[in-house]
Amino acid sequence: MYRKRFFPNFDRFLDQTTSNSHTMREIQFREALREAMSEEMRRDPLVYLMGEEVAEYNGAYKVSQGMLDEFGADRVIDTPIAELGFAGIGVGSAMNGLRPIIEFMTFNFSLVAIDQVINSAAKIMSMSGGQYSCPIVFRGPTGNAGMLSSQHSQNFENWFANTPGLKVVVPSNPYDAKGLLKSSIRDNDPVIFMESELMYGDKGQVPEEEYLIPIGKANITREGNDVTLISFGKMMKVAHQAADELAKNGVSAEVIDLRSVRPIDYATVINSVKKTNRCVIVEEAWPLAAISSELTYNIQRNAFDYLDSPVIRVNSLDLPLPYAPTLIEAILPNVKRTLQAVETVMYRK
User: Fold this and answer.
1) CA–CA dist 31, 18 (Å, integer)
2) Burial (Cβ within 10 Å: 0-12, 13-18, ≥19) of residue 254
3) Residue 319 class from Cβ within 10 Å (0-12 exposed, 13-18 middle, 19+ buried)?
4) What distance in Å separates the CA atoms of residue 283 and residue 231, rounded to the nearest whole number?
5) pLDDT per residue over 142-178, tens digit each?
6) Fewest CB within a 10 Å sphere: which of 65, 161, 234, 258?
């Protein structure tokens, strides 16, 4: 309803992944995000960016480089180290008609502001009886980023996805990052937009022309017949590397990028499992109450008769992430563990 009301031509721009008319060029993940924000700020004067070091320093990860020069200090706003404060300012301004983009330097720091995200942004539509919407985007890096130890290496996608009223987006490449961020900024619900610090320098093909990707539509990035591999975010690299290795041994893996984890495109997942009859889910988060847990339940609930083996999840081990790189490698999902899971569901062990 709100999408149609505020942007009636939204559907006309959605997910132009099959268009042949685009002029493609290779840019970095951070550049794709910058283009998305800049284009939306040019299009709509109600959009602004706020966060730590987004202005004078050009962004902690140089995502907002040059935006202060173009849009000025009224629309690209540096904040103190006070996530609860500037998240609250963003929520209040969104309720009053603006469309803020709130950058967390890492989603680990969003825990300081989680009351504003969960108890204010996510619930105001319901609690006001539809009188207020909260068109706000909270964005920043999630998950492991190298040797940053426990407090800077956590995945909270499942935490936020557990909350009615929020949408949670986790792109895996520059093309998706731009299209999904533009859709998130235009959305009239609060969106949690989770990136990866390790992916900001990744390059990919992105159109010069405008395009949007709808939130809640998964992408089959590789067709296959023998097993379904499901992932999202930077773990898509693990899924694709595993699929490449499986192909060398004659195993055809279908790979699905969820793109968003609230809403989840269950139809694409279930249809794939009905075709391949086996499924492995790769997720960086801890295993208890993870996105992979929810996927596994829905697969067994809606495709049980099609399964030739139980679904297997490949998660991080149930431990705080250490500093030592050897221990990080042992704890995080990787290609070896994914291949072992596929061997198990195919009864090749």
Assistant:
1) 22
2) buried
3) exposed
4) 6
5) 999 888 888 888 999 999 999 999 999 999 999 999 9
6) 65
Residues paired with residue 194 on neighbouring β-strands, in sequence order: 140
Answer yes or no: is pLDDT of 207 > 80: yes
Average pLDDT over residues 121-147: 95
Instruction: Point out the catalytic residue in the list 31, 83, 103, 157.
Output: 83
Both structure tokens of 106 = 């890492």
- Is residue 153 within 8 A of residue 144, CB to CB? The reply is yes
State the pLDDT at residue 148: 87
Pick the closest to residue 202 from 230, 153, 229, 237 (CA basis). Answer: 237
pTM for the structure as a whole? 0.92
Query: Can 208 be counted among the known catalytic residues?
Result: no
Residues constituting the chain: 349
Task: State residue 167 phi and psi, 5-degree precision.
Answer: -115, 145
pLDDT category at 2 given cuts 50, 70, 90 is very low
CB count within 10 Å of CB 120 equals 21
Q: What is the pLDDT of residues 253-307, one digit of tens each?
A: 999 999 999 999 999 999 999 999 999 999 999 999 999 999 999 999 999 999 9
Which residue of the set 152, 195, 254, 284 is catalytic?
A: 152
Q: What is the pLDDT of residue 49?
A: 98
Is position 22 annotated as part of the catalytic site?
no
